[in-house]
Amino acid sequence: MHASSPSRRTVLAGAAAVAALSGAPLLPGRAHAAGAAGAAGEAYRWRNVVQGGTGFITGVLFHPAVRGLAYARTDIGGAYRWEDRTGRWVPLVDHIGWDDWNLMGVEAMAVDPARPDRLYLALGTYAQPWAGNGAVLRSEDRGATWRRTDLNVKLGANEDGRGCGERLLVDPRDSDTLWLGTRHDGLLRSADRGATWQAVAFPAAPSATGQGITLLVAAGRTVYAGWGDAGGTTANLYRTADGTTWEAVPGQPAGTAAKVPVRAAYDRHTRELYVTYADAPGPNGQSDGSVHKLRTTDGKWTEVTPVRPGGTTSEGGRDSFGYGGVAVDARRPGTVVVSTNNRWAEIDTVFRSTDGGRSWTSLKDTAVLDVSETPFLKWGGDRPKFGWWIQALALDPYDSKHVVYGTGATLYGTRDLTHWAPQIRGLEEASVRQLLSPPTGRAHLLSGCGDIGVMYHERLTASPSRGMASNPVFGTSTGLSLAPARPSYVVRAGWGDHGNGAWSDDGGRTWAPFAAQPDMARTAPGPIATNADGSVLLWSFGPGHPGFRSADNGATWAEVATFPQGAAPVADPADPRRFYAFDTTTGTLFASTDGGRTFTARATGPGSGDTEFQLAAAPGRSGDLWLSLKGNGLYRSTDGGATVGKVGSCRASYTLGFGKAAEGASYPALYMVGSTGGVTAVYRSDDEARTWVRVNDDRHQWGWTGAAVTGDPRVYGRVYVATNGRGVQYGEPA
């Protein structure tokens, strides 16, 4: 998913000020006027379809002065506040809209120890030329409302190093002063609580490809900064005691100059700073690392690494990994926890020491994991693993046995150092690709996602009891299709552990892999479709590759030379002989009337070169097609693609779906993510797109939502929205 490429204005450390825009308060709940044909908003109640985490938790921060107050950040799914009374996470940035999708990734967060209601977030998902600049949100009410400052630098919450320490910090000497470390633009400082920012002099020069500042941490009145661009030639840990002059920390341990300081934590009782190191920023690519502590009173360094990487695994391989998270016990001097990261062979662990790192205990060795609330964490097997990508690690300052750690899929917590369970309620981070709402059966929803494959949602309010669809287990789903005249028959495609395609004859509860698959499916599985009665399958494999057809449930496959390469096949809901496809390179609709054996060109003209599009067929009708085009709006054909006309009520359409018709209406309700005027939002039409009503509001926007939307064929008004980092959202009229 790319955005337009704004010009980048590089800020040199120690040079001129960074221009910043001080935004007006963002007041979640104030609705925009949608601006066209009957587009006034309708009140909806929005909730997450519960999956249970499913994404990379990159940071957890307990407030040091308020019991039960904590915050979590994610790489693409925003930030959350923990509500101890309800035992749930509350999303804080769902108000971010389509145009600001790049701000759904949280690079860093900071709290003010002296003023518990203040919260700061540094937002920006990608630091690439095609992504927008970052922003800082500041709140005086723990994230209920925000003020925003747009930056002239880019942040990278979903890039390498996203699990490093907090790059945002309230100065320990002055609550009005904030520090922000960037990846490519040095160090910034704000003297007015984040309203404006200045670049300040820093001893290390940023590069266009390095990590820049990886962490900021206060040790008493001194601020320390980790530096990720050292490359073995310079220091990688700096400090300032006066808030003006920065210097390299003297005597840094041998062997760490070539490594990245990943995270740091300060023990105020012993006045020691613990630092974890790795040979890469992570979360991937680490093969070596260590843990060291600095006694800040006299500058003495001591290595306290629990286990050195490089040993032999139980299977005879090399035990390679780095170190990630670190946290200290606010109540017990010398008690500290650290985590390994990228330890795939022996599985990552959390080590705990009660004597300042002289000896360690692996908490993994005695861990009892309970994932009954989120069964997908078994990954299709019999039991869960302790975790991977453990860089977020936190210790409750009011409970020495309350430890939490983030993984690539969840947040585990313990209250006794032995029994662990996901502490994830309310936090949903899946990147959703496909949605199906069957007309019959136990499940009202099937979802296809990045990383966690396909899920069967027999309840919307609980993580699927069957976990991820297995046999095979998919990492990422690329296609999901149901036979309208035989809704118990479903097929799926994706990156699987034992084959990349599967079918189900019980509505998606259980699956069986295709007996065979085209060679191309091994390396580039793409979208798949089944015809109306489930007798024919069409599988597409991207630009430059033909489509393939099976008429025996995936036992054999034949090339379809006339299928437009790279197109997504769409089946006619009523006529099993008909399939459709749209060729975006020429703006041509194609159709097959012989069960997908051959395709012929039909209408031409709409959307040539429009790379973001979706072709959809209205349920229960033959030849009734709708074409969503990002740059060209919405089109419709009622004759199977022979002719096509533009729908005048839409300025832009990104994805379209259908739901149960309104009372007294004969046509299904239409749901669209698009724009009827100036606001990209979620809309419903009960009159075949003549008029639209906006059904989401300014509090519920979730960034980019262009992958999929569908209504529920059994419940009028219910709509499911696929988000890129906030899971599946579903709304119902309030």
Description:
The chain is an all-beta fold. It folds into 2 domains: 52-422, YVTN repeat-like/Quinoprotein amine dehydrogenase (Methylamine Dehydrogenase, Chain H, 7 Propeller), CATH 2.130.10; 432-733, Methylamine Dehydrogenase, Chain H (7 Propeller), CATH 2.130.10. The chain is built from no helices and 59 strands. The chain has a 5-stranded antiparallel sheet with strand order 1-10-9-8-7, with no helix packed on it.
Q: Can you describe this structure in just a few lines?
A:
The protein folds into two domains: 52-422, YVTN repeat-like/Quinoprotein amine dehydrogenase (Methylamine Dehydrogenase, Chain H, 7 Propeller), CATH 2.130.10; 432-733, Methylamine Dehydrogenase, Chain H. Helices cover 0% and strands 39% of the residues. It has no helices and 59 strands.
CATH topology of the largest domain: Methylamine Dehydrogenase, Chain H
Structural class: mainly beta
Q: Determine the N-to-C terminus distance.
A: 32 Å
Oligomer: single chain
Whole-number average pLDDT?
93
Keywords:
single chain, 734 residues, mainly beta, five-stranded antiparallel β-sheet, five-stranded mixed β-sheet, 0% helix, disordered N terminus, signal, polysaccharide degradation, hydrolase, WD40/YVTN_repeat-like_dom_sf, TAT_signal
Secondary structure layout plus pairing:
Elements: E1 21-22, E2 44-48, E3 57-62, E4 69-74, E5 79-83, E6 88-91, E7 106-112, E8 115-123, E9 135-139, E10 147-150, E11 168-170, E12 178-181, E13 187-190, E14 198-200, E15 213-219, E16 222-227, E17 237-240, E18 247-248, E19 260-267, E20 272-278, E21 289-295, E22 300-303, E23 311-312, E24 318-319, E25 322-328, E26 336-341, E27 350-353, E28 361-362, E29 368-369, E30 393-395, E31 403-406, E32 411-414, E33 419-422, E34 432-436, E35 445-449, E36 453-457, E37 474-483, E38 486-496, E39 501-504, E40 512-513, E41 528-530, E42 537-539, E43 547-550, E44 558-560, E45 570-571, E46 579-583, E47 588-592, E48 600-604, E49 613-617, E50 625-629, E51 633-637, E52 645-647, E53 652-659, E54 669-675, E55 680-685, E56 693-694, E57 709-712, E58 715-722, E59 728-733
Parallel strand pairs: 29-33
Antiparallel strand pairs: 1-10, 2-59, 3-4, 4-5, 5-6, 7-8, 8-9, 9-10, 11-12, 12-13, 13-14, 15-16, 16-17, 17-18, 19-20, 20-21, 21-22, 23-24, 25-26, 26-27, 27-28, 30-31, 31-32, 32-33, 34-35, 35-36, 37-38, 38-39, 39-40, 41-42, 42-43, 43-44, 45-46, 46-47, 47-48, 49-50, 50-51, 51-52, 53-54, 54-55, ...
